[in-house]
Amino acid sequence: MTDSMLELYVHDGLSDEEIDRQKATYGPLTKDVRELIQLALQTRADADDVARAREHLAAAREILGCDREDGPYGTRFNDSGRFRNWGNAAIGLRNAIAPIGELHEDADGRVWADIHLGPIYEGPAGHVHGGVSALLLDQILGDAARLSGHPGMTGTLTVRYRKRTPLGAVHVEAKLDRVEGRKAFVVGHVADAEGICVEAEGIFIAPVWMVEQRDSFAETPRPE
Ligand SMILES: CCCCC/C=C\C/C=C\C/C=C\C/C=C\CCCC(=O)SCCNC(=O)CCNC(=O)[C@H](O)C(C)(C)COP(=O)(O)OP(=O)(O)OC[C@H]1O[C@@H](n2cnc3c(N)ncnc32)[C@H](O)[C@@H]1OP(=O)(O)O
C-alpha cells in the first residue's frame, strides 16, 4: 500500500515553462467541461438539439481520447518545488468536478478559499450537500497542515453542521492548531455571508514514509 502510493508521487522534472504551457492548454478545457456539467443539469434544449449537441461531444471525445494517459494523475513534482495534484477531487486544476479554485495563505498560517458552489453541488433543495462541505474542509484543513510543514493523511475529520449552507458564494478556511508527534490538529470552517455554517476539526497523520519524503524537500512544495 505504502509502496503503491509512493509510485504516484512522481518527480517528473518538467520545466516551469512546460508546466505553464500545460496550465494554459488544459485549464480552459477544464473550465469548459465544468460549464458543460452544469448545462447537462440545466438545459431545456429539446431532444433533437440534445442529440445534435451529443454528436459534437462525441467528436470532442474522439479528439481528446486519441492521445491520453491511463489511471490516476497522482502528485507530480519538479525541480523548482512546484507540485501538481491536478486530478485531486477537491482542488485539481484538471478536474472539472473540483469546486476549489485558488487557494490563499496568510502570513499567520491561515489557509482560505472563496468558492462559488453552483447547482451541481446541491444536497437539500437549494443548499450545499453535506458531503461537499466535508470535501472542502478535508482539503483545506489538509492543505493548512501541509503548508505549515506537517503534511498528512486525514486520520479523523469531525464535522459539525451548524446551519444550512446555501448554494452560491462560500468561504472556507483553516489553520493549524497544534502538532503532537506525527499528528497535526487543524481547525476550520465553511461560512456564507451571514457567518459560520459548518465547522470542523481534523487530525492529519503523517505516515512514516511521508515524513521521510517531507524531510527530503528543502522547502514545502507549493501547489499549482
Ligand atoms: C510524499 C510527499 C510528501 C512531501 C510533502 C509534500 C507534499 C505532500 C503532498 C500531499 C500531502 C498528503 C495529503 C494531501 C492533503 C489533503 C488531501 C485530502 C486528504 C485525504 O483525502 S486523505 C484520504 C483519507 N484518509 C486515509 O485514507 C487514511 C487511511 N489511514 C492511514 O493511512 C493510516 O491509518 C494513518 C496514516 C491515518 C495512520 O497510520 P499510522 O500507521 O501512521 O498510525 P499509527 O498507528 O502509527 O498511529 C500514530 C498516531 O496516530 C493515532 N492515530 C492512528 N490512526 C488515527 C486516526 N484514524 N485518527 C486519529 N488518530 C489516529 C495513533 O493513536 C497514534 O497516536 P500516538 O502517537 O499519540 O500514540
Automatic annotation (TrEMBL):
GO terms for molecular function: hydrolase activity. It is an enzyme of class 3 (hydrolase). InterPro entries: HotDog_dom_sf, THEM4/THEM5_acyl-CoA_thioest, Thioestr_dom. GO terms for biological process: fatty acid metabolic process. Residues 126-195 form the Thioesterase domain. Keywords: Apoptosis, Cell membrane, Cell projection, Cytoplasm, Fatty acid metabolism, Hydrolase, Lipid metabolism, Membrane, Transit peptide. Belongs to the THEM4/THEM5 thioesterase family. This is Acyl-coenzyme A thioesterase THEM4.
